[in-house]
Specification:
Helix content is 44%, strand content 17%. α14 (495-510) links the parallel β22 (485-491) and β23 (515-521). The radius of gyration is 37 Å and the shape is flat. The protein has 892 residues and is of the alpha/beta class. The chain has 28 helices and 29 strands. The strands form 10 sheets. Strands 6-5-14-16 form a 4-stranded antiparallel beta sheet. The chain has a 4-stranded mixed beta sheet with strand order 10-11-9-12, with helices on one face.
Length: 892
């Protein structure tokens, strides 16, 4: 049995939706409206929620994601599709471990003191607390996802999927372990991928250091931005065509401090114009040097520990922080006379995306995925149109990254995450990769096995998200019915981190594309243009619930959805949120007006569900609004089909506020106030038909407001959330053209009233020659008199005029001529006196300025700008005087 909708019996006098949001949401969920319909014949529409990190509360960036996805979900649900929105959250390895470590540090506790098991327990406790808070935020935003299918990237099912994917890639030799140069974050204590390094320009120095030959007879000077890595140098390199150093190639030099002998090599990677044209080569601490080291077979010497302190290879600087070492080393070089000079330099420095610590390139043993074999089918899927990217301009960015992709470092030196499923036999050294935890070594039978200490990069598990959340690797009913999903909707900033990896892993693991459409929305930015993120110090200011508490959910959602276009950023304006709350109130009051005019039996006006034919309606204004509504439905359908949610919402807004509320409702008041006439009955039917339909169109944007109003109006069905989407109906071009002319005529008269400061309640006279519009204007003369505030007995309407009225303001609207007697608009004598005084004042100003300009002393001595300003004043005064004289002439 369906539970009654939790709304007051009577519609409140003022917009009061925020007070029923929670109860409405609970009702929607308990009635099962968030679940896909159990009908195999229905077309499916599926979205996988980008899983928010459990690092803290959500912000406005998440709010725009949930608003877009909920709008698409509600739209397709109303279309009748079997609609599934899969919710979930991400464990976010580095980020979550960092925030928990910071919390523990407040109490003087480190993770090392706790040990791995207890620390992970602390992180799980954090996850439980913040996932509850995140879920409550999402529910408060009205997200209509199927909570019964909620997933977490570390739950049992997804953990099994991660292990299966790892083992499959390992067995195909697409996953390997090796020692390579990686980006290392000393603060996080782990390797990070290239995508997790943010480069920023910083003011620094270029230090010139002299390297001597062993006999101290010759030297070469190199330039470096990182002198603390000198102890890891294994060569000095020059360009093979640099004539300055031809005689040095092949000779030995001595590395300062550690006194290691290295050779001078020639390599085309060296820029002859940089510094002195000679560079130190540190293969274990620089990407370019790493490649050079491979080409020349150089030694790779790591001089730093995981925490960026110097190790035993740094000689006497062992144990010092890298920047302390830098200072001390430079002091030694200066004292030895080998610090030749120092130059200021601005260059790009990589920082950890999570904690903003300067990242350190260093050699390290890590796990990698070979990406080129995975990238090839991912490129083809977009090239052949199997996957479409919106907006299209991001397609080139997608191609550029995949065509130049490097192997992906997937191991992280963390405790929170999916442990790498590889074990090492402590007896024979065998490496075992297994779907189940092994107990014995398959090679020697030993039980002395140790699992790899590292965990997987968070993006590895989230790369499986579209299919792992549906039960993969098992062929579950959900996977069979709902995969591939329809749309992957997310911010454009993670197209590489996540979207491209989902495409690659989806194709590799399932043999199918993971989704048909990639929809990339823009980012929400702060007032100073910064991307709103959880890492901001004042991230709490961007908690969407703070705005919801003041304005309600719907005004915020509508603002987020209509303030930008796909792929373009936005700055949230609270004034727009307030304006959209006014919009919600406008609809509310309009609906109360309609409801209040339906009489004692409102049910008889319940729409049938079929489109009205405007041609069969008696009144031209009814034909107009129904035609305009049908055009709106067609345009909204077109826009939503190409994911232009913002423009579709703006058009719904313009129609409801402008055409329906400001024009149609006002026009129908003439008939409604006449009583129970056939014309009034038709107006009531049309009012409900159009209002019902536009509430359906608006529902994906403002679900609470529309659901609430809809229940008070006569309607078919149990809930708007599952009501059918409006059908397109026939337009009526003639009715639209006629009404457009009437609206322009009324606007012209209103503008004239405003210009002449006519009191709002005062009615005026109008003389109109309608020409071919005469029949229509005659039919609608009561509406014209009501909207333009024309006196009942002072409207003269005919096809043509024998004589043009004198002393009247003239308006021409198409073929319509309208004359407004000036005596009705203004007291002629008082207006002549006022305009005469204003004209005299302008004449005096012109005379003053002309007197100045006729004074040669002023013209020759005053600055040119001052002289020009007087010339400009005269031109402005003369233009204004001309308009005043024209106005005075019209009064004579």
């Amino acid at each position: 049995m369906k539970r009654k909708v939790p709304l007051p019996e009577e519609m409140a006098k003022t917009y009061d939706v925020p007070n029923v949001e929670k109860a409405l949401y609970q009702w929607w969920e308990e009635e099962g409206y968030f679940k896909p319909v159990d009908d195999e014949s229905k077309k499916t529409f599926v979205i996988s929620m980008p899983p928010p990190n459990v690092t803290g509360i959500l912000h406005l960036g998440h709010a725009i994601t949930s608003s877009v996805e909920d709008a698409l979900t509600r739209y397709h649900r109303m279309l009748g599709d079997a609609t599934l929105w899969v919710p979930g959250a991400d464990h976010a390895g580095i980020a979550t471990q960092n925030v928990v470590e910071r919390e523990l540090a407040k109490n003087g506790i480190s993770r090392q003191e706790l040990g791995r098991e207890k620390f992970v327990q602390e992180v799980w406790a954090w996850k439980d607390e913040y996932l509850d808070r995140i879920t409550n935020q999402q529910r408060s935003m009205g997200v209509s996802c199927d909570w019964s299918r909620e997933r977490f990237t570390l739950d049992d099912g997804l953990s099994r999927a991660v292990r299966e994917a790892f083992v499959r890639l390992y067995e195909k030799k697409l996953i390997y372990r090796g020692q390579y140069l990686v980006n290392w974050c000393p603060r996080c204590g782990t390797a990070i991928s290239d995508l997790e390094v943010e480069h920023e320009d910083e003011t620094a120095h270029l230090w010139y250091v002299r390297y001597w030959t062993p006999d101290h007879t010759e030297s070469m000077t190199v330039a470096t931005t990182r002198p603390e890595t000198i102890m890891g140098d294994t060569a000095v390199a020059v360009h093979p065509e640099d004539e300055r150093y031809q005689h040095m190639i092949g000779k030995e030099l001595v590395v300062p401090v550690v006194n290691r002998r290295i050779k001078v090599i020639a390599d085309e990677a060296v820029e002859k114009e940089f510094g002195t044209g000679a560079v130190k080569v540190t293969p274990a601490h620089d990407p370019t040097d790493y490649e050079m080291g491979l080409r020349h077979g150089l030694e790779f010497i790591n001089v730093m520990n995981d925490d960026s302190t110097m190790n035993e290879n740094a000689g006497k600087f062992e144990g010092q922080d890298r920047f302390v070492c830098r200072k001390n080393l430079l002091d030694d070089l200066r004292e030895a006379g080998d610090l030749v000079k120092i130059e200021d330099l601005t260059h790009s420095v990589g920082h950890c995306q999570r904690c903003h610590t300067i990242a350190e390139p260093r050699i390290s043993t890590q796990w990698f995925v070979r990406m080129k074999p995975l990238a090839k089918p991912a490129l083809e899927a977009v090239r052949n149109g199997s996957i479409k990217i919106i907006p299209e301009r991001f397609t080139k960015i997608y191609f550029d990254w995949l065509e130049n992709i490097r192997d992906w470092c997937i191991s992280r030196q963390l405790w929170w995450g999916h442990r790498i499923p590889v074990w090492y036999c402590q007896n024979c050294g065998a490496e075992i990769c297994s779907r189940e935890d092994p107990t014995v070594c398959p090679k020697c039978g030993s039980t002395n096995l140790k699992q790899d200490e590292d965990v997987l990069d968070t993006w590895f598990s989230s790369g499986l998200w579209p299919f792992s959340t549906l039960g993969w690797p098992d062929q579950t009913p959900d996977l069979e019915r709902f995969y591939p999903i329809s749309v992957m909707e997310t911010g454009y900033d993670i197209i590489f981190f996540w979207v491209a990896r989902m495409v690659m892993l989806g194709l590799e693991m399932t043999g199918e594309i993971p989704f048909h459409t990639i929809y990339l929305h823009g980012l929400v930015r702060s007032e100073d243009g910064k991307k709103v993120s959880k890492s901001m110090e004042d991230a709490w200011r961007y908690d969407p619930l703070l705005i919801v508490q003041e304005y309600g959910v719907d005004p915020l959602r509508f603002t987020l959805l209509t303030s930008s276009t796909p792929g373009n950023d936005m700055k949230l304006s609270l004034s727009r949120v307030e304006a959209n709350r006014n919009f919600a109130n406008k609809i509310w009051q309009a609906s109360r007006f309609v409801l209040g005019n339906l009489g004692d039996d409102p049910g008889k006006y319940t729409p049938s569900g079929d489109p009205l034919d405007p041609a069969k309606l008696d009144d031209a204004i009814d034909r107009w609004i129904v035609s305009r509504y049908h055009s709106l439905v067609a345009e909204v359908n077109r826009l939503l089909s190409v994911y232009q949610l913002g423009e579709a919402g703006r058009q719904i807004y313009d129609f409801l506020w402008g055409e329906f509320c400001d024009w149609y409702i006002e026009a129908t008041k003439v008939r409604l106030y006449e009583g129970e006439t056939p014309a009034a009955e038709q107006a009531k039917n049309v009012l409900i038909y159009v209002l019902d339909g536009t509430l359906r169109l608006l529902h994906p944007y403002m679900p609470y407001t529309t659901e609430t109003i809809w229940h008070y109006l006569p309607h078919q069905g149990e809930a708007l959330i599952v009501a059918s989407w409006p059908q397109e109906g026939p337009p009526n071009a003639n009715a639209e053209a006629n009404m457009d002319a009437l609206i322009e005529l009324v606007r012209g008269i209103r503008n004239a009233r405003s210009e002449y400061d006519v009191e709002p309640g005062r009615k005026i006279a109008a003389i109109i020659a309608g020409h071919e519009m005469t029949e229509f204007l005659t039919e609608q003369q009561n509406v014209l008199k009501s909207l333009a505030r024309i006196a009942d007995d002072r409207l003269m309407l005919s096809e043509t005029l024998d004589q043009v009225p004198q002393k009247a303001l003239t308006l021409v609207i198409g073929t319509i001529e309208c004359y407004l007697p000036l005596a009705d608009l203004v007291d002629l004598d008082r207006e002549r006196e006022r305009l005469g005084k204003e004209a005299a004042q302008l004449e005096a100003e012109i005379e003053r300025s002309e007197g100045l300009l006729s004074n040669e002393k002023f013209v020759n001595k005053a600055p040119e700008a001052v002289v020009q300003r007087e010339r400009d004043k005269i031109a402005d005064y003369q233009e204004r005087l001309g308009r005043l004289r024209e106005r005075l002439g019209s009064l004579d």
